[in-house]
Design goal:
Helix content is about 50%, strand content about 10%. The chain is α/β, with parallel strands linked by helices. The protein has a 4-stranded mixed beta sheet with strand order 1-4-3-2. Helix 11 links the parallel strand 3 and strand 4 (about 195-200). The relative contact order is 0.10.
């Protein structure tokens, strides 16, 4: 059976949060005013509300419950990086692999099937997670900051620590997910700011090899 694409719910995030009594109408109005008057890079309303002190977990729950986050495949379609038929084939392949215990994220599978490129992969995930892209070309993961997450975790989830200070830690991820980012946030005290950047999978692989070779096995050859 062909898996049907999940429809996108059009209800606005702000309206959802007000209906769930997570924010007030006044807070929503203030956030919309800030969004309208901001200078520089556009910020989504959820990002602004987090800056205003609304718990990230509450916003993430609202996004997930109402399917406001576009599925990765839908974002690829919106960018015209793939066709609907290519997406359907990738979804079917993903289902077949899952049946034999092989779980591959859709974005990575689309690249491996030749339907898109790593540049589109980065652009898609950057938009999906509202995450800046960072180059790891000349970056070497130093031993001390990397200890913050441990070698095994870093290799398994393709993560390097870019900065680690008492008040802030910054990560580069090659395969981001809401689960991994929430897990990393919970690993540190509430007062410590946790930031994320998106890294090219090939650059991440080379970066990890600099530190862990020969123990890191590339998934992106």
């Amino acid at each position: 059976m062909r898996r049907k694409l999940t429809p996108i719910v059009e209800k606005m995030l702000g309206q959802i949060l007000v209906e769930r009594n997570i924010i007030s109408s006044m807070q929503l109005g203030a956030a919309l005013d800030r969004q309208k008057n901001q200078k520089g890079k556009h910020k989504y309303i959820g990002e602004i509300l987090i800056e205003m002190g609304i718990p990230r977990e509450e916003i993430n729950a609202a996004l997930d419950d109402y399917d406001k986050r576009k599925p990765t495949g839908q974002i690829f379609l919106d960018l015209k990086a793939i066709t609907p038929d290519q997406l359907q084939k990738a979804l079917e392949q993903q289902d077949q692999l899952a049946k034999v215990g092989i779980h591959i994220r859709l974005a990575k599978l689309l690249v491996e099937m030749g339907f898109t490129t790593y540049d589109a992969y980065l652009d898609t995930l950057s938009k999906h997670f509202n995450m800046p892209i960072v180059s790891l070309g000349n970056f070497f993961p130093s031993l001390s900051p990397q200890k913050a997450i441990g070698d095994t975790y870093a290799q398994k989830h393709k993560i390097v620590v870019l900065e680690d200070y008492p008040a802030k830690i910054k990560f580069a991820l090659a395969e981001p997910s809401s689960f991994i980012m929430d897990e990393l946030r919970r690993a540190f005290p509430p007062g410590k700011k946790v930031e994320f950047c998106l890294a090219h999978p090939l650059e991440m692989d080379r970066c990890l090899r600099k530190k862990f070779d020969p123990f890191v096995v590339s998934h992106y050859r």
